[in-house]
Amino acid sequence: MKNYKLLTPGPLTTTKTVKEEMLFDRCTWDDEYKNITQSIRSHLLDIAQVSSEEYTSVLIQGSGSFAVEAVLGTTIKNKDKLLVIGNGAYAERMISMAKCMGINCVVIRSEYNNYPNMNEIKGMLEEDKSITHIAMVHCETTTGILNPLEELAVLSKEYGKILIIDAMSSFGGIPINVKKLEIDYLVSSANKCIQGVPGFAFIIAKKSELLKCKGVSKSLSLDLYDQWEAMDKDGKWRYTSPTHVVAAFLKAIEELLEEGGVEARYKRYSENNNLLRQKLGELGIQPYISKEKQSPIITTFEFPNKEFDFIKFYNFIKERGFVIYPGKLTNIDTFRVGNIGEIYLKDINELCKIIEEYIEGGK
Ligand SMILES: *Cc1c(COP(=O)(O)O)cnc(C)c1O
Asked: Residue-wise over 292-331: b if at least 16 C-beta within 10 A, else e?
């Protein structure tokens, strides 16, 4: 297989040094391994800008969706009601999870290229006092829109709701002050902006809330409370942990800190994204999300013309060393380009040259 760089929403391109951590097989019971887990948990609290008095972090096996499902299933009781704010596929996935688990759920949707309507949310909170939890996706990776987290957090606290944020594709790449925003549960995973490899996800949880959730989960494997209780003792995971992935993740965190932390990574991603939007715009390829709503993570582009053949385009680019992503919209033809991971301006410039070559070749 020919080597390429990933310009996708994750898993993404990681460093050689992160991958090298996986060349050694570790024992799950060993103290040094358990310390890796504890060290990761502590770093995650720092990245979230919270203290260990108020918050805890829990790692859980599986992809990001497993952790979202664990939060919904562990924290929402039979008499509770969840409000999901939706403008993309990942919010729809939360709604499907709620349905699957028999959780009372109401939804406020907006167009995929638009922010949720705060007045509508306020109206529903006024009207339906039985709502206890609110869930929203921060960066909707479906389109690349960055949803207004601060506004929602203020509203949620004003009404005393428990706030669940899917920050899967933004945590580590965009500064999020979890304490200031008073987020109760934030979910992300190993293979997004912290630049680890796939295999587990994690939750930053407000302890005073999580403590109320013992015995709520109807799933054993996805019981966030049990997972926390076991892991909090000494860093030993309940059930087999992805040892190689865990070791690589600590290395990825160290490299994030070496880069200058989340602020520095945010700057790099933003520069990548600005250059990408500008260059493709010059080639007549227009983004679907307007500039002020665009995240620095991934961009959805509309096909430049009716004859545009995505598979041909994809293969042309892949042969030249990059992999992009298909669109996820049903009503218009789009493709997506991620700019997170071990990706620099040089790579974006190179990609844009390849795309220019393709467009000019009249293909
Ligand atoms: C990646 C991602 C997820 C999780 O997807 P998995 O395929 O389960 O890892 C959830 N929400 C968002 C916004 C994501 O970008």
From this structure: ebbbbbbbbbbbeeeeeeeeebbebbeeeebebbebbbee
Distance of CA 274 to the CA centre of its chain: 20
Look at residue 2 and tell me whether its pLDDT is greater than 60: yes
Hey, is 184 helix, strand or coil?
coil
Dist. CA 185–CA 195, nearest whole Å: 21
Q: Find the helix packing angle between 345-360 and 261-282, rounded to 10°.
A: 20
Instruction: Report CA(137)–ligand 1 centroid distance (Å).
Output: 10
Q: Whole-number mean pLDDT of the chain?
A: 97
Task: Give the integer Cα–Cα distance in Å for 178 and 192.
Answer: 18
Question: What distance in Å separates the CA atoms of residue 329 and residue 331, rounded to the nearest whole number?
Answer: 6
Query: Does any ligand 1 atom lie closer than 6 A to the CB of residue 170?
Result: no
Mean of the pLDDT values across residues 34-50?
98
Domains within the chain, CATH numbers bracketed = 5-9+261-360 (3.90.1150.10), 16-257 (3.40.640.10)
Give 331's contacts (C-beta < 8 A, 6+ positions apart): none
Distance from chain centroid for Cα 244 = 21
Q: Whose CA is nearest to atom 3 of ligand 1?
A: 64
- Euclidean distance between CA atoms 217 and 279, whole angstroms: 49
